[in-house]
Amino acid sequence: MLLPEHAYHQPASLAECLDALVRLDAGRAKDDERLAKVQVVAGGTDVIFNMRLRLFQPENLVSIRRLPELQKIEQLADGGLRIGAACRLVDIADSPVIHKRFPALKDAIDAIASVHIRNIGTLGGNICLETRCWYTNNSAEWRNGREGCFKTDCEQCHVIPSSHVCHAINNADSPLALIVLNAVLTIQSAAGSRELPIADFYNKDGIAHMALEAGELVTHVTIPPCEDRSVFIKFTPRKGMDFSLGAVAARCGGSGEQASDVSVVIGSVSSAPIILDEPARILEREGLGDAAIDNAVERIRDEMGEVTNLYARATYKKQITKVLVRRALVALREH
Amino acid sequence: MAKHIMCLTVNGDLHEFAVDDTDTLLDVIRNQVGFTGTKRGCTTGSCGVCTINNDRGESILACLTHALEWNGEAITTIEGLEANSELDAIQAAFVEFGAVQCGFCTPGVIMSAKALLNKYPNPTEEQINEGMAGVLCRCTGHIKVKEAIRNDFRLRQAKSGVRR
Protein backbone atom coordinates (compact mmCIF):
# COMPACT_ATOMS: atom_id res chain seq x y z
CA MET A 1 0.00 0.00 0.00
CA LEU A 2 1.54 3.27 -1.11
CA LEU A 3 1.38 6.42 0.95
CA PRO A 4 -1.08 9.11 -0.15
CA GLU A 5 0.47 12.31 -1.53
CA HIS A 6 1.60 14.76 1.13
CA ALA A 7 4.32 17.27 1.93
CA TYR A 8 6.79 16.34 4.68
CA HIS A 9 7.98 19.03 7.08
CA GLN A 10 10.85 18.81 9.55
CA PRO A 11 10.83 21.91 11.74
CA ALA A 12 14.11 22.60 13.57
CA SER A 13 12.59 23.84 16.81
CA LEU A 14 9.41 23.52 18.86
CA ALA A 15 8.44 27.14 18.13
CA GLU A 16 8.84 26.57 14.40
CA CYS A 17 6.78 23.38 14.70
CA LEU A 18 3.90 25.08 16.55
CA ASP A 19 3.84 27.84 13.94
CA ALA A 20 3.77 25.26 11.17
CA LEU A 21 0.78 23.48 12.75
CA VAL A 22 -1.24 26.69 12.45
CA ARG A 23 0.13 27.90 9.12
CA LEU A 24 -0.29 24.58 7.30
CA ASP A 25 -3.81 24.04 8.60
CA ALA A 26 -5.07 27.42 7.34
CA GLY A 27 -8.25 27.31 5.30
CA ARG A 28 -9.73 24.19 6.86
CA ALA A 29 -13.34 24.04 7.96
CA LYS A 30 -12.81 24.26 11.71
CA ASP A 31 -14.59 21.23 13.07
CA ASP A 32 -14.19 18.81 10.18
CA GLU A 33 -11.89 16.09 11.53
CA ARG A 34 -11.86 14.24 8.25
CA LEU A 35 -10.25 17.06 6.36
CA ALA A 36 -7.32 17.72 8.69
CA LYS A 37 -4.71 19.35 6.50
CA VAL A 38 -1.89 18.75 8.89
CA GLN A 39 -0.91 15.75 10.95
CA VAL A 40 1.86 15.49 13.53
CA VAL A 41 4.12 12.47 13.21
CA ALA A 42 6.80 11.29 15.64
CA GLY A 43 7.88 7.65 15.27
CA GLY A 44 5.37 7.07 12.48
CA THR A 45 4.37 3.54 13.44
CA ASP A 46 0.72 4.54 13.89
CA VAL A 47 0.46 7.57 11.59
CA ILE A 48 2.08 5.93 8.55
CA PHE A 49 0.02 2.79 9.15
CA ASN A 50 -3.19 4.86 9.15
CA MET A 51 -2.04 6.73 6.06
CA ARG A 52 -1.52 3.46 4.22
CA LEU A 53 -5.11 2.53 5.14
CA ARG A 54 -6.19 5.98 3.84
CA LEU A 55 -7.70 6.83 7.21
CA PHE A 56 -5.31 9.76 7.51
CA GLN A 57 -4.87 11.72 4.29
CA PRO A 58 -3.29 14.97 5.46
CA GLU A 59 -1.80 17.41 2.97
CA ASN A 60 1.07 17.98 5.38
CA LEU A 61 2.99 15.85 7.81
CA VAL A 62 4.96 17.66 10.50
CA SER A 63 7.67 15.57 12.10
CA ILE A 64 8.51 16.12 15.78
CA ARG A 65 10.88 13.15 16.01
CA ARG A 66 14.05 15.22 16.11
CA LEU A 67 12.79 18.30 17.98
CA PRO A 68 15.51 18.89 20.60
CA GLU A 69 12.98 20.22 23.16
CA LEU A 70 11.07 16.93 23.26
CA GLN A 71 13.92 14.42 23.69
CA LYS A 72 14.73 14.45 27.39
CA ILE A 73 13.81 12.22 30.32
CA GLU A 74 14.38 14.68 33.17
CA GLN A 75 14.42 13.88 36.88
CA LEU A 76 12.75 16.70 38.76
CA ALA A 77 13.96 18.04 42.12
CA ASP A 78 10.82 16.76 43.88
CA GLY A 79 11.46 13.18 42.73
CA GLY A 80 9.08 13.41 39.81
CA LEU A 81 9.85 12.94 36.17
CA ARG A 82 9.34 14.99 33.02
CA ILE A 83 9.42 13.09 29.74
CA GLY A 84 9.53 14.70 26.29
CA ALA A 85 6.82 13.52 23.90
CA ALA A 86 9.38 12.45 21.28
CA CYS A 87 11.30 10.16 23.66
CA ARG A 88 11.45 6.67 22.26
CA LEU A 89 9.50 4.00 24.13
CA VAL A 90 12.58 1.79 24.34
CA ASP A 91 14.63 4.55 25.99
CA ILE A 92 11.93 5.16 28.58
CA ALA A 93 11.51 1.46 29.39
CA ASP A 94 15.30 1.00 29.66
CA SER A 95 15.71 3.98 31.96
CA PRO A 96 16.63 2.68 35.47
CA VAL A 97 14.59 5.38 37.25
CA ILE A 98 11.37 4.23 35.53
CA HIS A 99 12.08 0.61 36.39
CA LYS A 100 12.66 1.45 40.03
CA ARG A 101 10.01 4.03 40.79
CA PHE A 102 7.30 3.68 38.14
CA PRO A 103 7.07 -0.08 37.48
CA ALA A 104 3.56 0.18 35.99
CA LEU A 105 4.86 2.51 33.28
CA LYS A 106 7.79 0.22 32.53
CA ASP A 107 5.51 -2.81 32.23
CA ALA A 108 3.01 -0.90 30.09
CA ILE A 109 5.70 0.24 27.67
CA ASP A 110 7.32 -3.20 27.51
CA ALA A 111 3.91 -4.57 26.57
CA ILE A 112 3.52 -2.26 23.56
CA ALA A 113 3.80 -4.13 20.25
CA SER A 114 7.26 -5.48 19.35
CA VAL A 115 10.75 -4.21 20.07
CA HIS A 116 10.88 -3.06 16.42
CA ILE A 117 7.98 -0.70 17.05
CA ARG A 118 9.28 0.45 20.45
CA ASN A 119 12.67 1.24 18.90
CA ILE A 120 11.09 4.09 16.95
CA GLY A 121 7.67 4.64 18.53
CA THR A 122 7.43 7.48 21.03
CA LEU A 123 5.57 8.12 24.28
CA GLY A 124 3.70 11.06 22.71
CA GLY A 125 2.67 8.82 19.85
CA ASN A 126 1.31 6.15 22.19
CA ILE A 127 -0.63 8.74 24.19
CA CYS A 128 -2.15 10.09 20.96
CA LEU A 129 -2.67 6.63 19.40
CA GLU A 130 -5.54 6.60 16.92
CA THR A 131 -8.60 4.56 17.93
CA ARG A 132 -9.33 1.48 15.82
CA CYS A 133 -12.08 -1.02 14.96
CA TRP A 134 -12.47 -4.06 12.71
CA TYR A 135 -13.87 -1.96 9.87
CA THR A 136 -11.30 0.84 9.76
CA ASN A 137 -8.41 -1.52 10.49
CA ASN A 138 -8.49 -2.62 6.83
CA SER A 139 -7.26 -1.21 3.54
CA ALA A 140 -9.31 1.36 1.62
CA GLU A 141 -9.95 -1.28 -1.08
CA TRP A 142 -11.34 -3.70 1.51
CA ARG A 143 -13.52 -0.97 3.03
CA ASN A 144 -14.92 -0.10 -0.39
CA GLY A 145 -16.83 -3.38 -0.27
CA ARG A 146 -19.35 -1.80 2.08
CA GLU A 147 -20.58 1.61 3.15
CA GLY A 148 -18.31 4.00 5.02
CA CYS A 149 -18.52 5.08 8.66
CA PHE A 150 -18.06 8.14 10.87
CA LYS A 151 -14.32 7.89 10.34
CA THR A 152 -14.56 7.86 6.55
CA ASP A 153 -17.56 9.32 4.74
CA CYS A 154 -20.84 8.09 6.25
CA GLU A 155 -22.89 8.78 9.37
CA GLN A 156 -22.87 5.28 10.81
CA CYS A 157 -20.87 2.97 13.03
CA HIS A 158 -20.23 -0.61 11.91
CA VAL A 159 -19.40 -1.76 15.42
CA ILE A 160 -22.70 -0.62 16.96
CA PRO A 161 -25.01 0.16 14.00
CA SER A 162 -27.63 1.94 16.12
CA SER A 163 -25.06 4.33 17.57
CA HIS A 164 -24.73 8.04 16.88
CA VAL A 165 -21.03 8.12 17.67
CA CYS A 166 -17.93 6.21 16.56
CA HIS A 167 -17.13 3.24 18.81
CA ALA A 168 -13.55 2.62 17.74
CA ILE A 169 -11.44 1.43 20.65
CA ASN A 170 -8.61 3.20 22.40
CA ASN A 171 -5.97 0.48 22.57
CA ALA A 172 -3.08 2.52 23.97
CA ASP A 173 -1.24 0.93 26.90
CA SER A 174 0.97 3.63 28.40
CA PRO A 175 -1.93 6.04 29.19
CA LEU A 176 -3.39 3.53 31.67
CA ALA A 177 -0.16 3.52 33.66
CA LEU A 178 0.17 7.29 33.33
CA ILE A 179 -3.36 7.80 34.66
CA VAL A 180 -2.76 5.76 37.83
CA LEU A 181 0.54 7.62 38.27
CA ASN A 182 -1.39 10.95 38.11
CA ALA A 183 0.64 12.19 35.14
CA VAL A 184 0.00 15.65 33.74
CA LEU A 185 0.33 16.49 30.04
CA THR A 186 1.85 19.73 28.83
CA ILE A 187 -0.01 20.80 25.71
CA GLN A 188 1.45 23.63 23.67
CA SER A 189 0.28 25.66 20.71
CA ALA A 190 1.46 28.81 19.01
CA ALA A 191 -0.93 30.69 21.32
CA GLY A 192 0.45 29.31 24.58
CA SER A 193 0.79 26.36 26.89
CA ARG A 194 -1.56 24.50 29.21
CA GLU A 195 -1.38 21.60 31.62
CA LEU A 196 -3.99 18.86 31.65
CA PRO A 197 -4.11 15.73 33.84
CA ILE A 198 -3.99 12.77 31.48
CA ALA A 199 -7.07 11.40 33.30
CA ASP A 200 -9.06 14.24 31.67
CA PHE A 201 -7.45 13.92 28.23
CA TYR A 202 -9.66 11.20 26.72
CA ASN A 203 -13.30 11.33 25.56
CA LYS A 204 -15.63 8.42 24.96
CA ASP A 205 -15.86 9.16 21.25
CA GLY A 206 -13.86 7.17 18.72
CA ILE A 207 -13.22 10.24 16.56
CA ALA A 208 -12.74 13.17 18.94
CA HIS A 209 -11.10 10.88 21.48
CA MET A 210 -8.53 13.41 22.68
CA ALA A 211 -9.00 16.82 24.25
CA LEU A 212 -6.67 18.36 21.70
CA GLU A 213 -7.59 21.44 19.67
CA ALA A 214 -6.30 22.19 16.18
CA GLY A 215 -2.74 23.49 16.37
CA GLU A 216 -2.07 21.88 19.75
CA LEU A 217 0.69 19.42 20.48
CA VAL A 218 1.35 17.20 23.49
CA THR A 219 4.93 18.17 24.30
CA HIS A 220 5.74 16.73 27.74
CA VAL A 221 4.46 14.30 30.32
CA THR A 222 5.12 15.12 33.97
CA ILE A 223 4.84 12.31 36.50
CA PRO A 224 4.72 13.38 40.17
CA PRO A 225 6.94 11.52 42.67
CA CYS A 226 5.52 8.14 43.62
CA GLU A 227 6.47 5.78 46.45
CA ASP A 228 3.42 3.56 45.94
CA ARG A 229 3.21 0.11 44.41
CA SER A 230 1.98 0.03 40.82
CA VAL A 231 1.34 -2.68 38.22
CA PHE A 232 0.22 -3.03 34.62
CA ILE A 233 -1.20 -6.18 33.02
CA LYS A 234 -2.70 -6.77 29.60
CA PHE A 235 -4.06 -9.66 27.62
CA THR A 236 -3.32 -9.98 23.94
CA PRO A 237 -3.74 -12.98 21.59
CA ARG A 238 -0.26 -12.70 20.06
CA LYS A 239 2.42 -10.72 21.81
CA GLY A 240 4.40 -8.49 19.50
CA MET A 241 1.72 -7.49 17.06
CA ASP A 242 -1.83 -7.61 18.40
CA PHE A 243 -3.51 -4.87 20.34
CA SER A 244 -4.87 -5.89 23.72
CA LEU A 245 -8.31 -7.35 24.39
CA GLY A 246 -8.10 -5.96 27.88
CA ALA A 247 -5.57 -4.04 29.94
CA VAL A 248 -5.38 -2.74 33.48
CA ALA A 249 -3.12 -0.49 35.50
CA ALA A 250 -3.40 -0.27 39.28
CA ARG A 251 -1.62 1.57 42.05
CA CYS A 252 -1.94 1.83 45.82
CA GLY A 253 -0.09 3.02 48.89
CA GLY A 254 0.67 0.93 51.98
CA SER A 255 2.13 -2.57 51.99
CA GLY A 256 0.76 -6.09 52.01
CA GLU A 257 -3.02 -6.04 52.37
CA GLN A 258 -3.10 -2.42 53.52
CA ALA A 259 -4.26 -0.12 50.76
CA SER A 260 -4.50 3.65 50.62
CA ASP A 261 -5.02 5.97 47.64
CA VAL A 262 -6.10 3.14 45.36
CA SER A 263 -6.35 3.83 41.65
CA VAL A 264 -7.47 1.27 39.04
CA VAL A 265 -7.84 2.00 35.32
CA ILE A 266 -8.97 -0.37 32.57
CA GLY A 267 -8.39 0.00 28.84
CA SER A 268 -9.22 -1.49 25.44
CA VAL A 269 -12.91 -1.81 26.28
CA SER A 270 -14.08 1.58 25.04
CA SER A 271 -12.99 4.72 23.19
CA ALA A 272 -11.38 5.99 26.38
CA PRO A 273 -9.63 4.43 29.37
CA ILE A 274 -12.07 3.90 32.26
CA ILE A 275 -11.18 4.88 35.81
CA LEU A 276 -12.83 2.47 38.27
CA ASP A 277 -14.00 4.62 41.19
CA GLU A 278 -16.24 2.42 43.31
CA PRO A 279 -13.94 -0.66 43.28
CA ALA A 280 -11.04 1.59 44.35
CA ARG A 281 -13.08 2.99 47.28
CA ILE A 282 -14.02 -0.57 48.34
CA LEU A 283 -10.34 -1.54 48.40
CA GLU A 284 -9.45 1.56 50.39
CA ARG A 285 -12.08 0.61 52.98
CA GLU A 286 -11.49 -3.14 53.04
CA GLY A 287 -7.84 -3.58 52.01
CA LEU A 288 -6.42 -6.07 49.53
CA GLY A 289 -7.64 -9.30 51.12
CA ASP A 290 -9.28 -11.96 48.94
CA ALA A 291 -12.79 -11.03 50.06
CA ALA A 292 -12.21 -7.33 49.39
CA ILE A 293 -10.81 -8.09 45.94
CA ASP A 294 -13.88 -10.23 45.23
CA ASN A 295 -16.12 -7.33 46.26
CA ALA A 296 -14.23 -4.85 44.13
CA VAL A 297 -14.18 -7.08 41.05
CA GLU A 298 -17.94 -7.65 41.36
CA ARG A 299 -18.49 -3.90 41.05
CA ILE A 300 -16.48 -3.47 37.85
CA ARG A 301 -19.36 -4.36 35.57
CA ASP A 302 -21.39 -1.34 36.75
CA GLU A 303 -18.58 1.06 35.95
CA MET A 304 -17.59 -0.37 32.60
CA GLY A 305 -20.62 1.07 30.87
CA GLU A 306 -21.24 -0.05 27.33
CA VAL A 307 -18.48 -2.48 26.38
CA THR A 308 -17.60 -2.34 22.73
CA ASN A 309 -18.04 -5.62 20.93
CA LEU A 310 -14.67 -5.37 19.19
CA TYR A 311 -12.10 -8.09 18.40
CA ALA A 312 -13.93 -10.32 20.89
CA ARG A 313 -17.50 -10.62 22.15
CA ALA A 314 -18.48 -8.06 24.77
CA THR A 315 -19.28 -10.82 27.30
CA TYR A 316 -15.77 -12.21 26.83
CA LYS A 317 -14.19 -8.78 27.23
CA LYS A 318 -16.13 -8.10 30.42
CA GLN A 319 -14.96 -11.43 31.78
CA ILE A 320 -11.30 -11.00 30.78
CA THR A 321 -11.26 -7.50 32.26
CA LYS A 322 -12.48 -8.85 35.59
CA VAL A 323 -9.79 -11.52 35.51
CA LEU A 324 -7.11 -8.96 34.69
CA VAL A 325 -8.20 -6.60 37.47
CA ARG A 326 -8.13 -9.49 39.94
CA ARG A 327 -4.62 -10.47 38.81
CA ALA A 328 -3.45 -6.87 39.03
CA LEU A 329 -4.77 -6.46 42.57
CA VAL A 330 -3.17 -9.72 43.71
CA ALA A 331 0.09 -8.58 42.10
CA LEU A 332 -0.17 -5.27 43.98
CA ARG A 333 -0.67 -7.11 47.25
CA GLU A 334 2.38 -9.28 46.64
CA HIS A 335 4.51 -6.44 45.29
CA MET B 1 6.12 17.66 -5.92
CA ALA B 2 9.51 18.89 -4.82
CA LYS B 3 12.41 16.50 -4.48
CA HIS B 4 14.74 16.72 -1.50
CA ILE B 5 18.42 15.89 -1.44
CA MET B 6 19.43 13.59 1.39
CA CYS B 7 22.41 11.49 2.34
CA LEU B 8 22.46 8.15 4.07
CA THR B 9 25.27 5.86 5.09
CA VAL B 10 24.34 2.31 4.16
CA ASN B 11 26.68 -0.45 5.34
CA GLY B 12 29.51 2.05 5.71
CA ASP B 13 29.14 3.69 2.28
CA LEU B 14 27.77 7.21 1.97
CA HIS B 15 24.96 7.58 -0.57
CA GLU B 16 23.34 10.78 -1.74
CA PHE B 17 20.08 10.93 -3.61
CA ALA B 18 16.92 12.89 -4.38
CA VAL B 19 13.80 11.65 -2.60
CA ASP B 20 10.10 12.49 -2.58
CA ASP B 21 8.17 13.54 0.51
CA THR B 22 6.29 10.25 0.40
CA ASP B 23 9.34 7.95 0.11
CA THR B 24 9.91 5.63 3.04
CA LEU B 25 13.30 4.39 4.13
CA LEU B 26 12.38 1.07 2.52
CA ASP B 27 11.73 2.73 -0.87
CA VAL B 28 15.12 4.38 -0.75
CA ILE B 29 17.03 1.24 0.27
CA ARG B 30 15.43 -0.85 -2.46
CA ASN B 31 15.00 1.63 -5.31
CA GLN B 32 17.78 4.16 -4.88
CA VAL B 33 20.57 2.30 -3.10
CA GLY B 34 19.56 -0.86 -4.95
CA PHE B 35 19.84 -3.25 -2.01
CA THR B 36 16.83 -5.52 -2.46
CA GLY B 37 17.70 -7.83 0.42
CA THR B 38 15.42 -5.74 2.62
CA LYS B 39 11.93 -6.95 1.67
CA ARG B 40 8.59 -5.23 1.30
CA GLY B 41 6.02 -7.30 3.16
CA CYS B 42 2.87 -6.05 4.89
CA THR B 43 4.09 -2.40 5.01
CA THR B 44 2.01 -1.93 8.16
CA GLY B 45 4.41 -3.08 10.88
CA SER B 46 3.12 -6.60 11.44
CA CYS B 47 5.55 -8.86 9.58
CA GLY B 48 9.01 -7.38 10.20
CA VAL B 49 10.59 -8.48 6.90
CA CYS B 50 11.77 -4.90 6.22
CA THR B 51 13.86 -4.83 9.42
CA ILE B 52 17.19 -3.01 9.23
CA ASN B 53 19.54 -1.88 12.00
CA ASN B 54 20.15 1.74 12.93
CA ASP B 55 23.54 3.12 13.98
CA ARG B 56 23.00 1.79 17.51
CA GLY B 57 22.39 -1.70 16.16
CA GLU B 58 18.68 -1.67 17.00
CA SER B 59 15.97 -3.22 14.84
CA ILE B 60 13.96 -0.67 12.85
CA LEU B 61 11.08 -1.24 10.42
CA ALA B 62 12.08 0.51 7.19
CA CYS B 63 8.50 0.53 5.87
CA LEU B 64 7.09 2.68 8.67
CA THR B 65 9.49 5.58 8.62
CA HIS B 66 10.03 8.41 6.15
CA ALA B 67 13.32 8.41 4.26
CA LEU B 68 13.81 12.10 5.12
CA GLU B 69 13.91 11.23 8.83
CA TRP B 70 17.16 9.36 8.16
CA ASN B 71 19.00 12.20 6.45
CA GLY B 72 22.61 12.05 7.66
CA GLU B 73 22.17 8.81 9.61
CA ALA B 74 23.80 5.42 9.19
CA ILE B 75 22.04 2.08 8.81
CA THR B 76 22.99 -1.54 8.26
CA THR B 77 21.06 -3.83 5.93
CA ILE B 78 21.39 -7.57 5.44
CA GLU B 79 23.98 -6.88 2.70
CA GLY B 80 26.23 -5.25 5.30
CA LEU B 81 26.67 -8.24 7.59
CA GLU B 82 29.07 -10.18 5.42
CA ALA B 83 32.70 -9.05 5.81
CA ASN B 84 35.61 -10.13 3.58
CA SER B 85 33.41 -12.67 1.78
CA GLU B 86 32.71 -14.35 5.09
CA LEU B 87 29.25 -14.68 6.57
CA ASP B 88 28.50 -13.06 9.91
CA ALA B 89 28.27 -15.57 12.78
CA ILE B 90 24.48 -15.29 12.92
CA GLN B 91 24.20 -15.90 9.15
CA ALA B 92 26.43 -18.97 9.50
CA ALA B 93 24.27 -20.18 12.37
CA PHE B 94 21.12 -19.81 10.25
CA VAL B 95 22.72 -21.95 7.54
CA GLU B 96 24.01 -24.56 9.95
CA PHE B 97 20.69 -24.96 11.78
CA GLY B 98 18.47 -24.90 8.70
CA ALA B 99 16.70 -21.72 9.75
CA VAL B 100 16.12 -20.74 6.11
CA GLN B 101 13.50 -22.22 3.83
CA CYS B 102 11.95 -19.97 1.19
CA GLY B 103 14.12 -17.12 2.43
CA PHE B 104 11.74 -14.21 1.95
CA CYS B 105 11.58 -13.25 5.62
CA THR B 106 15.20 -14.24 6.28
CA PRO B 107 16.78 -10.76 5.89
CA GLY B 108 14.27 -9.31 8.34
CA VAL B 109 14.63 -12.24 10.71
CA ILE B 110 18.44 -12.07 10.64
CA MET B 111 18.53 -8.29 11.15
CA SER B 112 16.15 -8.72 14.10
CA ALA B 113 18.35 -11.49 15.49
CA LYS B 114 21.40 -9.28 14.98
CA ALA B 115 19.76 -6.45 16.94
CA LEU B 116 18.81 -8.89 19.68
CA LEU B 117 22.37 -10.21 19.91
CA ASN B 118 23.78 -6.66 19.90
CA LYS B 119 21.76 -5.99 23.04
CA TYR B 120 22.07 -9.44 24.65
CA PRO B 121 25.13 -11.35 23.36
CA ASN B 122 23.97 -14.51 25.12
CA PRO B 123 20.19 -14.09 25.25
CA THR B 124 17.82 -15.99 27.51
CA GLU B 125 14.79 -17.78 26.09
CA GLU B 126 12.58 -14.89 27.17
CA GLN B 127 14.86 -12.31 25.55
CA ILE B 128 14.83 -14.29 22.29
CA ASN B 129 11.02 -14.48 22.29
CA GLU B 130 10.77 -10.77 23.07
CA GLY B 131 13.33 -9.68 20.46
CA MET B 132 11.94 -11.88 17.70
CA ALA B 133 8.23 -11.26 18.37
CA GLY B 134 8.06 -8.60 15.68
CA VAL B 135 8.98 -10.82 12.73
CA LEU B 136 6.91 -13.50 11.10
CA CYS B 137 8.09 -16.59 9.25
CA ARG B 138 5.39 -18.69 7.67
CA CYS B 139 7.40 -21.62 6.34
CA THR B 140 10.55 -22.33 8.37
CA GLY B 141 8.69 -21.57 11.55
CA HIS B 142 10.37 -20.08 14.55
CA ILE B 143 11.89 -23.18 16.18
CA LYS B 144 14.90 -23.41 13.87
CA VAL B 145 15.41 -19.67 14.03
CA LYS B 146 15.56 -19.81 17.81
CA GLU B 147 17.97 -22.74 17.63
CA ALA B 148 20.28 -20.71 15.40
CA ILE B 149 20.14 -17.72 17.73
CA ARG B 150 20.79 -19.87 20.79
CA ASN B 151 23.86 -21.32 19.10
CA ASP B 152 25.23 -18.06 17.73
CA PHE B 153 27.04 -17.38 21.01
CA ARG B 154 28.62 -20.86 20.97
CA LEU B 155 29.70 -20.47 17.34
CA ARG B 156 31.26 -17.09 17.98
CA GLN B 157 33.17 -18.43 20.97
CA ALA B 158 34.39 -21.42 18.98
CA LYS B 159 35.47 -19.09 16.21
CA SER B 160 37.42 -16.78 18.50
CA GLY B 161 39.11 -19.83 20.06
CA VAL B 162 37.63 -19.33 23.53
CA ARG B 163 37.05 -22.63 25.28
CA ARG B 164 33.62 -23.12 26.76
Task: Please explain how this structure is put together.
- Chain A is of the alpha+beta class.
- Chain A has helices at 14-23, 47-52, 89-93, 96-101, 103-110, 115-118, 123-127, 140-143, 174-180, 277-286, 290-298, 300-304, 314-333; strands spanning 7-9, 38-41, 60-63, 73-75, 81-84, 184-189, 192-197, 217-223, 229-235, 246-253, 260-267, 274-275.
- In chain A, the strands form three sheets. Chain A has a five-stranded antiparallel sheet with strand order 4-5-8-6-7. A four-stranded antiparallel sheet of chain A has the order 9-10-11-12, with helices on both faces.
- In chain A, strand 2, helix 2 (47-52) and strand 3 (60-63) form a beta-alpha-beta unit.
- The mean pLDDT of chain A is 93.
- Chain B is built from five helices and five strands; from the N terminus they run E-E-H-E-E-E-H-H-H-H.
- Chain B is of the alpha+beta class and 164 residues long.
- Chain B has helices spanning 25-33, 89-96, 106-119, 125-132, 143-159, and strands at residues 4-10, 13-19, 51-53, 59-61, 74-75.
- In chain B, helix 3 crosses helix 4 (125-132).
- Chain B has two domains: 4-80, Beta-grasp domain (Ubiquitin-like (UB roll), Roll), CATH 3.10.20; 89-159, [2Fe-2S]-binding domain (DNA polymerase, domain 1).
- The termini of chain B are far apart.
- Classes of the chains: A alpha+beta (335), B alpha+beta (164).
- At the A-B interface, helix 2 and helix 6 of A face strand 4, helix 3 and helix 4 of B.
